[in-house]
Amino acid sequence: MTAIHPRGPRRPRVAPRLSTAANTVVAGVVALLFFLPALWIFIGSFRPTVDILDSLSPLSWDVIVPTRVSLDNYVSLLAGEGFGTALLNSLIVCAVSVAAGLVVSATAAYALSVFQFRGREFVFAVVVISFMVPFEAIAIPLSQLFNSWSLGNTLVGLPFIASAFSIFLFYTFFLGIPHEIEEAARLDGAGPFRTFFTIVVPMSKPAFATVAILTFLAQWGSYLWPVLMVTDTSARPLPLELSVFQAAQPPEWGSVLAFGVIFILPVLIVFLIFQRWFVQASMAGALKQ
Amino acid sequence: MSLASKATTVVPVSRRHHRGLRRQAFWAAIFLAPALIALLVLRVAPTISAVGSSLYEAFPGGLIPATFAGFANYEQLFADQNFLGTIGRTLLFNVIINPLQIFLALLIAVLMIRRIKLGGLWRTLMFIPITVPLVGSCIAWGAALEPRGPINAIISALGGDPQPFLTSPSQALACIILIASWIGIGYWMLFLIAGLQAIPEDIYEAAKLDRAGPIRTFFTITIPLLRRPLLFVLVADTVANFVLFIPVQLLTGGGPESSTTMLMFDAYRTTFTYGSRNLGAAEVVILTLIMLGFVLLQFRLLREERPSR
């Protein structure tokens, strides 16, 4: 993303300075409104369960500034059985999704952006439109098919593979690679496979990294598909395990919030590191001219 | 432009071109194979299976083999007041949540790109909810909206009466809109900020010289110039919210009194909870057809923006 342009005249006058102050106040209030719930989750994860909901009335600074702080929630969560298995399951499923998603999307996008063949526009439309229909819409019949193929309750059945967005992102990126480079490789006697793997892939690291991150984020938070596919406790990924945790009676809010924090943390770290770049990536192909 | 037409060779261009095209079609097929297989298995097969299943009738439990019933399932659905209510609720939910999210996202985006102090900090705080997966946010909001939770504590402290929120038929859907928007507004704002920054600065300077106030500038310059990103974001948001499932399944189970039962959850409940697979399949087909309509619109918008080689 380019730098934010300052709007308005260059010479500071009284009125613009006043409006800057007013805008800052409004922006700050709005931002805090969005941020406070996240802060509440984070702080709650360090409190004993009884304090999370009971310390609220009458309302005091206790909501944000905890009086009793402990790591007990995290200790009991990590010592429990379900969490470790779910974490491992999530990591495996995410790794497979990312690897498979990169292969499927990149090869398809390469075929559509580089090769000339009859019906190319049609294939492009069919592939992109089919994958644009949200997965949720056909998830129920798909899960019935997968279960009839005995993929239920296995990690094999869990990964997402292709997304229209990934294909589109690669497609846009590959269009930007100068023809001459591929042409030179071809004249050197390299076949399409070698050209793709030794020339195009190394040149497209940013696209691969973007798709890998976006696929990881989508898979990490995926909930509907595990709900449809998994009944065994041993095959649950994190989001499903979290929902089971939450459904416990009485709810252990402390552990639930600690679980939430560990669940959110990888995404948050990825996002904060790549914030600028992530914004740019989300926009690629979709809105940039 | 094709690779073949660029090659320098003595072979007549037309023949060379023709052979090159066939060779390219061959390689394109090989490179497309993984995606096409994924397409067949993940999209075509379940769609055919849903359409097929929706044309049959069976008793829950599956002891008696299903019999062909034509459009009987669809007729039954559209004669059912509950199902019509579900469709109406799904539409109402989308008519409210999508313009609401996009409008607020646009307002905040306009604010965030103005000259403000600590702009980077405020933007980062705004973006933090985006990183929270929906499951996590639903569970946290579920706790926050508990009868004795912090939201009610704030309302009490301000002198109001505690509200039932998710347990009230008149408030549950609004709560789901709130939960989905906590993430959605920041997310769609990302796209709108990029669109706003693509508007050339001198247009605003010209408006200023014409003594146009901020509100007039917003409606006569910002909105018209942002038409395409706005439309794209609105359609994409609708596609996402039409199949919203997690908050309903986790927090309300479609209730209280069906007040949060929407099409996606209803298809799930009909299929699994009530065990009516064929009726559920008909709902999936209806949902998929609606989604396809939105996606075609979205695809056309994407196409307009697509770079050409």
Question: What would the keywords be for this entry?
Answer:
heterodimer, A: mainly alpha, globular, disordered N terminus, disordered C terminus, B: 309 residues, mainly alpha, 2 strands, 71% helix
Description:
The complex is a heterodimer of chains A (about 290) and B (about 300). Helices cover about 70% and strands about 0% of the residues of chain A. Chain A has helices at about 15-45, 50-55, 70-80, 80-115, 120-130, 135-150, 165-175, 180-185, 190-205, 205-220, 225-230, 240-245, 255-275, 275-285. Chain A is mostly helical. In chain A, helix 3 (about 70-80) packs across helix 13 (about 255-275), helix 4 (about 80-115) packs antiparallel against helix 10 and helix 4 packs antiparallel against helix 12. The longest helix of chain A has about 35 residues, at about 80-115. In chain A, about 40% of the residues are buried. Mean pLDDT of chain A is about 80; it is low at about 1-15 and about 285-289. Chain A is built from 14 helices and no strands. Chain B is an all-alpha fold. Chain B is built from 13 helices and two strands, in the order H-E-E-H-H-H-H-H-H-H-H-H-H-H-H. Chain B has a two-stranded antiparallel ribbon with strand order 1-2. The longest helix of chain B is centred in the first third of the chain and has 42 residues, at about 15-55. Chain B is globular and about 75 Å long. The chains are: A mainly alpha (about 290), B mainly alpha (about 300). At the A-B interface, helix 1, helix 2, helix 4, helix 5 and helix 6 of A face helix 1, helix 3, helix 4, helix 5 and helix 6 of B.
